[in-house]
């Protein structure tokens, strides 16, 4: 809806606005000659955004927090059960105090407030003495609610947007690995998802999946076939509702992060290093050299040389161990290999350095474009650089925001 787009655009550009400010801005951005939306229509669109958790009120601006309460001696406080208490910093306690409950965050603007607001703006809204006496309580309640509502600042719920990006990312990652004919079921599963209970899983009822499949022309699919495909997608029945299926996004993101690092190892060291590094990542524990050779079916000299390169660049680590059954010559010293605990941090550092280098090269290309007459080649290079920066942004988002 154009009105919903204008509402979100206003919040993203300004950070936080009251509903009245959003109404004024939405009406003002309508092109001349077009029909301006009514306030009630804007309110309904705004409530839809709140219901879908795309918009929320800002936290309490002045939360009351008394730091001296936690500093009282034990004798003056009530005896608490013997449980392990997690000490929180003052900043964290203030944030928790300012946070709103779900009922407050996703409370829609009722129509009665709009009626009271319109009546308050009208020149005929004066109330006679007799009518004031009869309806004093009701009118005061409405006006107080309206004043409070007009003072509420709203903002975009970035957690919701990040969750939508996470869903889209995981769906796209799964897409190339699916069998032919399973794409409609995958799309129907994500489209039928309920309001999320957390940021790491997607839950969709089977009835909603069937409804979306019917809209896509998949009415001939049986329930057994759909269930089988959902299981192939790593969807499992929900523990809270047996008629719903749940997909754990954190597992897909974890696998995607490993694939990003493995692809860098492959580009930098070759196919053999990619195979060895993937084995060590999937094992998740120290692996002996002989087991690496037997599992990967690679030449012994290639394995040793590749392990040395990865160890030298601090992607993997080694440790010695004693084994009396190592060989018959009495040499009991052998090595086991494992990925370093900091290999992800090292990969992120490489991404930052690469992004800075690309930005510098992009800036130099722009300077060259200004004074170049034949700029066809430079423009094509600039396009390649922009695509590389976008690719880096996706990788950084995968490791930092997800």
Automatic annotation (TrEMBL):
UniProt keyword terms in alphabetical order: DNA-directed RNA polymerase, Nucleus, Transcription
Protein name: DNA-directed RNA polymerase III subunit RPC3
Function: DNA-dependent RNA polymerase catalyzes the transcription of DNA into RNA using the four ribonucleoside triphosphates as substrates. Specific core component of RNA polymerase III which synthesizes small RNAs, such as 5S rRNA and tRNAs.
Entry GO MF terms: single-stranded DNA binding
InterPro entries: RNA_pol_III_Rpc82_C, RPC3, WH-like_DNA-bd_sf
Family label: Belongs to the eukaryotic RPC3/POLR3C RNA polymerase subunit family.
Cellular component GO terms held in the UniProt record: RNA polymerase III complex
Chief location category: nucleus
Assembly and binders: Component of the RNA polymerase III (Pol III) complex consisting of 17 subunits.
Domain RNA polymerase III Rpc82 C -terminal, first and last residues per copy: 45-255
BP term (GO), one: DNA-templated transcription
Keyword Transcription: yes
Keyword Hydrolase among record annotations: no
Gene3D superfamilies: Winged helix-like DNA-binding domain superfamily/Winged helix DNA-binding domain
Organism: Oryza brachyantha
Compartment(s): Nucleus
